[in-house]
Amino acid sequence: MPRGNQQPQDLDTTAEGSHPLQHPQKCNNPRQTPEHTPAVTEQKAATPRGRGRVGPARTLPFQSKLSSAQGSRTRGPPASQRISERPNPGDPRKGKGPASGRRDSRQRPTSTTKPESSTPKTPATEHPNMARGGNQNWSSGESDGQPEEQTSEENGDKMVKETQYYDILGVKPSASPEEIKKAYRKLALKYHPDKNPDEGEKFKLISQAYEVLSDPKKRDIYDQGGEQAIKEGGSGSPSFSSPMDIFDMFFGGGGRMTRERRGKNVVHQLSVTLEDLYNGITKKLALQKNIICEKCEGIGGKKGSVEKCPLCKGRGMQIHIQQIGPGMVQQIQTVCIECKGQGERINPKDRCEDCSGAKVTREKKIIEVHVDKGMKDGQKILFHGEGDQEPELEPGDVIIVLDQKDHSVFQRRGHDLIMKMKIQLSEALCGFKKTIKTLDDRVLIISSKSGEVIKHGDLKCVRNEGMPIYKAPLEKGMLIIQFLVVFPEKQWLSLEKLPQLEALLPPRQKVRITDDMDQVELKEFNPNEQSWRQHREAYEEDDDGPRAGVQCQTA
Fold first, then answer.
1. How do 398-404 and 468-469 pair as beta strands?
2. Of 57, 103, 359, 521, which one has the fewest beta carbons inside 10 Å?
3. Which domains, from first to last, does the chain contain?
4. What is the phi/psi pair of residue 249, to 5°?
């Protein structure tokens, strides 16, 4: 009989000589539908050639439609419920089952070729005698009602191209930022070079993984393109930061024992005058600095002679435990006395003769400091990379700080110059002409018009005669002058001429005096006498209080 004309067989019957088929209700996988069970797969009978075959069990018409309708609405009812809905061949209420021998033309495939199964088989329930393709759907264009397969995102897993960085931190691709931060904290403290000097590469990988996964943009690029996308500059910064910098940013800089990657800056003060800041000047400054030894090229000795310090294990620091009380100890960290914080040492016989193993030599260098017009007191002039040199470290900077000396005439306030000028009473009343010598040795003439009275403490200004503006030397501030009127000495005018002077001056203000007013005498005030009196009054107030003296007992 052709394969396409085989009749559906009863699931409860067993062909002669064949292995019994498993009942669908005995399915070990609760999510496995009847279509997934071995009962619907083709089984070959173990009968001699030429005898009848048991054909593949096909889905019944009403069962296929029912499964298709349920699958289109939801994932379908539980497996146990779907199994119970399979028609029983012996149940008269369900109509004629597959054992009735009838053909249903609606369920017959149009081709004798079986379609490929799209659903993977379940190896745990497959019978040894079952043929491949037991999950074929023989209905035309209809769903078999089997539950849809859940995606990895529904199961809580995030689809990423590679998981190397996640594996380094020991987290899942769907981990939250808090979980990533917690994992990095634990691993960074465990594999820090100060605690595990031999795990430097592991610490570096942990830092790189955290740097990428802690940044949402970098993490998104890594999830889509992997590590190669990060290295190609997809994040805008293809190079990784220093592991120590990441550790310091995370822990606030605490616990770091290694040296900085950059040398210290050297600060020098340069004394300048106000004339130097006004006119600009170039000064030479001699500095003593360390440079890398040319003979040993900064090694300190012969090649291969440098070894890790056995005392501090290359950390450069020693940790001492000191007991400060019963059950109380204190941990003290000090610089290693053997290597002096270098973390390495050189055998004395292999040390360089020029630097004696110090790797650097002392050199005198003269630098030229250009003080521009308009610079201020305390302003810094930077010489990049002119600091002390050390192996494997970038040289620091030399910073020159300007220190302005006090000037006898002028005081600076921003871009302005302030000076005080004394004038006589006659000049204040009748006018004057004065000369001022500027900071660039020019002479200015100022004058007061006749009849213009200058009061004591008055302020006048001359525009564009102040300090030059930094980086705009053609513009200047103001020259501000404060006038101090000098009055004549006592008895400078005879009593006979006083009435003449009074006649020239504005009239006196008249005061009405009555008998109930008291007449007092004006005297010169001495500030020193006043301060002594206040001190004496304070001492007398202390005397009024009780005194606690030494009590002696006499016989």
1. unpaired
2. 521
3. 1-104+118-149 (no CATH), 164-251 (1.10.287.110), 266-404 (2.60.260.20), 411-486 (2.60.260.20)
4. -65, -35
- Note whether 501 and 440 are within 8 A (CB): no
Q: What is the pLDDT along the chain (555 residues), one digit of tens a residue?
A: 444 444 444 444 444 444 444 444 444 444 444 444 444 444 444 444 444 444 444 444 444 444 444 444 444 444 444 444 444 444 444 444 444 444 444 444 444 444 444 444 444 444 434 333 344 443 334 444 444 444 444 444 667 888 999 999 999 999 999 999 899 988 988 887 767 777 778 888 998 899 899 989 889 888 888 888 887 754 444 445 666 666 666 655 444 444 457 888 999 999 999 999 999 999 999 989 999 998 888 888 888 788 888 888 888 888 888 888 887 878 788 888 888 787 888 888 888 888 988 889 999 999 999 999 999 999 999 999 999 998 888 899 999 999 999 999 999 999 999 999 999 999 999 999 999 999 999 999 999 988 889 999 999 999 999 999 999 989 999 999 999 999 998 888 888 888 998 888 888 888 899 999 999 998 888 878 766 666 666 655 555 555 544 444 444
